[in-house]
Amino acid sequence: MSTKLRVTTRYLLMNQLKALGEAFLAVIAIFIIIPFILAVVSGNLSDFSLPNTIANFSWGFLIGAFIFLYDSLTYDNFKLFIQNGLSRKTFWAAKIVTTAIIAVIGELFAAFYRYAISAPIWGISAHAALMKTPYSLYGNFFGSNVWINILVSLLFTIIFFIATGITGMAIGGGLALLSKWGQRIVIVVVPVVAIFLIGFVGNSSADKQVHYDFTWLANLLKFLIGYPQHEPAIAGSFSPAVPMITMLIGGAIMAAIAYGFNQLLKVKN
Amino acid sequence: MSIQVQGVQQSFHGHTILEDLNLTLEPNKIYGLLGRNGAGKSTLLNIISNRIRPTHGTVTLDGESMHDNDHTLGKIYLMSEVNMYPERSRVKNLFKTTRLLYGGFNDAYAAKLVHAFGLDINARFGKLSTGYRSIFKLIIALCVPVDYVFLDEPVLGLDANHRELFYQELIETYSDQPRTFVISTHLIEEIANLIEHVFVLNDHHIIVNGEVPDILAKSYTISGPQTDVEAYTANLNIVGEDHLGGITAHYVYGALENDRPIPDTVKVDHLDLQKLFVILTNTKEEATAYVN
């Protein structure tokens, strides 16, 4: 790693960890302190359970959303780095490295919290705690050895966070090329078109008068999420291999797109 | 060791800003980059510092491309009107960030300048006035360990005292540690005595590129009665003229013919840099308006 890449990564990592800490504090304030104050004010303090509130924190969602949003912020960091004699290439590489580090740190923290704090408070086993996560689809794939399943779930989630962050980089890089007016249009139009498309596909599949065949799409989605080919499709028996490989390939494609957008970045007047 | 700008062309939305621009920036020299509003000075500096990509052409430092190259970009600093720093960051933290990312920073000199200019290092960058933002950026420009410093409108918002202080510090730091400065400004009179070499950018091209003493040595005001002045300046390179009462002034850029006798009624003076700039960059309409 070159000196410039090291210092850029260090700068981004320090800032991101600081922002993540602030996000954690904000979540604690919103989900513990405010409900506590409301319970006190409304006289329903007996309904408020601090241990349950603490146990119910699902840090994974916060970390995923944080990585996506933080990585999509492009232009301000670009300005600072180009002002300080750093290339676009170094900025891009430092963001990738930072994303990977935050993904690992974040998932290790979330896993520690889930298995060492939440599970004991709920009074459930590590396996039961694993099956309360979105990874539950794959939770029994490696048989009865719960720690192997947990280990693979960590790897799965880290890859998911990295791919999510890199997708944020690609989207943020694209938006950074647009004017503020263009950014607003994209942010409004794209979700509307996406929702319309989903509705259209759903209605077309249900409507027997319309002969669009989306079976291939359903089969593709089944394949991508690791739908069992032979065994009965029950939660826990899905294969994590295909989605992990898909996320790795998707992440690589997004990284290439982000790199392309990054190369086009320029200072706006 | 020099920066070479070769064949640079820049167009925005079909409008040409710079056309086939070529220039060289030598080490340890103070340059002036002059041009009217919209001439493309900032665009040129942005291209050199890789903030924007030229439509055509290359910029190299010691033969190495400036594009997307940490090695060459780390040897230059561009202080510009555009605010490139996070608004919420405190000044003292931005000094630290600069030290981290540039790999060095003259802390002692920065402390001296902070004191001299009265900059509050605990203030957030976004809370600074226009003048103090310029001061903050100037302090960084003078304290970063680079070989080339580009100053685009360096005294924007500075009062006369602070401008004077900046020029003094510029001379002092240049004497102590020679490096290249390129100053782009409209306050030509204030930098005329500082700069060694001048580029004048006009109509997408560099129209003047030379050492300041050489350029001023061949810039003349020939004044006197109209007929005598016209007779003396016939066939010379007249770049402008003024008429006031019965007196006519012709501005000549180029060598005079030494064997041509100067009538007693005609006076020959040298132009200063600002007047030369105004004459050379006047549009035809403006030049006509001056002739009265």
From TrEMBL, chain A:
The chain crosses the membrane at residues 20-41, 53-70, 91-113, 146-178, 185-202, 241-261. The keyword Transmembrane helix applies. Keywords: Membrane, Transmembrane, Transmembrane helix. The keyword Membrane applies. This is Abc superfamily atp binding cassette transporter, permease protein.
UniProtKB/TrEMBL annotation, chain B:
The keyword ATP-binding applies. Keywords: ATP-binding, Nucleotide-binding. Residues 3-228 form the ABC transporter domain. InterPro entries: AAA+_ATPase (IPR003593), ABC_transporter-like_ATP-bd (IPR003439), P-loop_NTPase (IPR027417). GO terms for molecular function: ATP binding; ATP hydrolysis activity. The keyword Ubl conjugation does not apply. It holds the Pfam family ABC_tran. PANTHER family: ABC TRANSPORTER, ATP-BINDING PROTEIN, SKFA PEPTIDE EXPORT ATP-BINDING PROTEIN SKFE. This is ABC superfamily ATP binding cassette transporter, ABC protein. The lineage of its organism: Bacteria, Bacillati, Bacillota, Bacilli, Lactobacillales.
